[in-house]
């Protein structure tokens, strides 16, 4: 559940454009009385809140961004100074109380919430995912997406599907999460079909050619996004609507046993032993291409017990592979 600080800061983000109480209530998924209470709190701050009449309605907007940035910069410096002090000396205790008093007098909502917008990767932190890695997302794109998610606004993006024959298209979506899944960074977002389908869409960040944050509020989720539910019955990257199937494998080698013990599935893998102490792994998955490709690669180390159709398919694939290699 969002804290009072988080709600206030979210309203601040919304009020970078003029909005009425009813517009704010819809964007925040709450009642007008709650919005009035938050606006009263903002009026006590030095954040530049203004209201004006237009077409018979009262609009609110935060206009003095320079003043807000000035306060935030000072507060961040004061907070850093506090961290250099401890509670073991009387002088430090006195100075910490003085700094707290200064911060309070500046009427900031949540000093700890003032963080840099850009989230970059340390150049000394190398993410090497191997020769077939397709993660090419840049820090600037990631920062823009994270900013839109935090601020609660829709984005308009130019997107090109992985299919080379697909033309690029401009779409407007509500960004929900950024998820790194099997070395690939995805934007999880809700498009115009979400209110009816309640299905999120996956967009490869590397395929987003450009983005622009709009002034339209993103959809309000009734329940927090759950990555495990989103990737339920998924083996790797693919999210599909096919019915999941029960897969039962006998694991022959130690290294693969360790992999299953350490891996995380949704729903969880059921690991048991048969009468001969062999590891039996039962999975509930959708038969996606990435799962079949992985299974084909470890066939010497497993025995497919269920379903029979999967075992038959792997046998046929082996026969065709041998035939092609001998041709």
UniProtKB/TrEMBL annotation:
Q: Cite the WCX domain residue spans from the record.
A: 259-321
Q: Where are the transmembrane segments?
A: none
Pfam family example for this protein?
WCX
Domain of life according to the entry: Bacteria
Domain (WYL) ranges: 142-200
Q: Which PANTHER family match?
A: PROTEIN PAFC (PTHR34580:SF1), PTHR34580
Q: What is this protein called?
A: Uncharacterized protein
């Amino acid at each position: 559940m969002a804290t009072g600080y988080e709600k206030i800061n979210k309203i601040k983000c919304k009020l970078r454009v003029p909005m009425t109480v009813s517009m704010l209530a819809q964007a925040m998924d709450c009642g007008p009385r709650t919005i009035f209470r938050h606006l009263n709190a903002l009026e006590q701050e030095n954040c530049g809140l203004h209201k004006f009449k237009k077409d018979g309605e009262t609009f609110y907007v935060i206009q003095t961004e320079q003043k807000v940035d000035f306060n935030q910069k000072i507060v961040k410096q004061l907070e850093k100074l506090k961290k250099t002090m401890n509670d073991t000396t009387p002088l430090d205790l006195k100075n910490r109380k003085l700094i707290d008093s200064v911060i309070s007098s500046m009427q900031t909502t949540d000093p700890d919430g003032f963080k840099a917008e850009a989230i970059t990767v340390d150049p000394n932190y190398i993410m090497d995912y191997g020769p077939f890695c397709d993660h090419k997302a840049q820090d600037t794109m990631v920062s823009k997406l994270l900013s839109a998610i935090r601020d609660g606004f829709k984005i308009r993006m130019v997107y090109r599907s992985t299919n080379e024959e697909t033309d690029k298209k401009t779409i407007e979506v509500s960004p929900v999460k950024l998820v790194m899944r099997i070395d690939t960074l995805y934007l999880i977002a809700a498009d115009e079909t979400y209110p009816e389908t309640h299905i999120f869409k996956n967009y490869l960040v590397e395929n987003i050619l450009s983005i622009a944050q709009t002034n339209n509020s993103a959809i309000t989720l009734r329940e927090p996004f759950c990555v495990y539910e989103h990737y339920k019955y998924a083996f790797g990257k693919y999210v599909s609507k096919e019915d999941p199937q029960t897969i039962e494998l006998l694991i022959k080698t130690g290294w693969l046993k360790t992999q299953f013990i350490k891996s995380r599935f949704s729903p969880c893998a059921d690991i048991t032993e048969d009468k001969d102490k062999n590891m039996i792994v039962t999975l509930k998955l959708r038969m996606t291409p990435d799962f079949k490709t992985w299974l084909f690669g470890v066939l010497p180390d497993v025995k497919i017990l269920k379903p029979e159709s999967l075992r038959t398919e792997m046998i046929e694939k082996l026969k065709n592979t041998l035939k092609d290699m001998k041709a």
